[in-house]
Known about the structure:
- The chain folds into two domains: 12-82, lambda repressor-like DNA-binding domains (434 Repressor (Amino-terminal Domain)), CATH 1.10.260.40; 89-112 and 154-271, Endonuclease Chain A (Endonuclease, Chain A), CATH 3.30.870.
- The longest helix has 17 residues, at 135-151.
- α1 (12-26) runs antiparallel to α5, α2 (31-38) crosses α3 and α7 packs antiparallel against α8.
- Strands 3-2-1-4-5-6 form a six-stranded mixed beta sheet, sandwiched between helices.
- By secondary structure, it is of the alpha/beta class.
- It contains twelve helices and six strands.
- It is globular, with a radius of gyration of 21 Å.
- It starts with 11 loop residues before the first helix and ends with a helix.
Amino acid sequence: MNIKELDPGASPQAAFGARLRRLREECGWSQDELGARIEYSSTHISSVETGRKVPTLRLARRADAALGSGDTFEREWREMRQGSLLEGFPEYVEHEGRAVELRLFDIGIVPGLVQTPEYARCLADSGVRRGGLTPDQADELVAFLAERQAALVRPRLPMLLVVMDESCIRRQVGGPGVMSAQLDRLLEVAELPNTVLQVAPFEMGERRSLALPTNLLTMPDMTVVAYAESQMRGYLERDSAAVFPLLTSYHQLQAEALSQAASVAMIKEARKGYP
């Protein structure tokens, strides 16, 4: 059998794959046997071990459990994510996965939690073309977003409140097919029982109370944390003295934004511009 030699120092992804292979072999398992234990195909295991495929959080956790490695693979996975995520964002995601209510506001880009895979891929690929991301980092971002979206599907669904600046539905990302599917997705989201979706129209002008993308999370103990981003970094805020003014601004934004019915009508009108 031709076994590809690995260089663990080549990249964090290569180090992950080399460790996975080493621990698997120490257990005396083939790729088929490990795959059966963690519910992945042997082809998938091979691709991760050789660095051709980016590991997911699900795979990392299952590998830790099967191989008795504590949280080694999960920690390596999180360290890999640091290279492609804004500072502060990984900490936010830890809270996002446990929140009972999420309030989202975005400008120019449809919020990640309601993006289609194709829309997310177009954004990531654009980062690669600009030189801001490597292809591997782009793959990681798209896979990570899918995991965040999947984490919201729980026995007790969290409440999702979304306010989008009108630019989110007017700015075309990808071709007409990508954008039409994304607008269709927003219409589907608006019909969910645990979701309220609103558009903040351009005509709000200076009455729009938030100037930056902002997320507010209500945790199971009813505390509220806030996350905001600039171009270079993100910041998670827990101090109520800083969070409550943002919460007030979000409430003001909701009051000034279009109702969900009017927002749906605007999205449907925008949808007519695409085949």
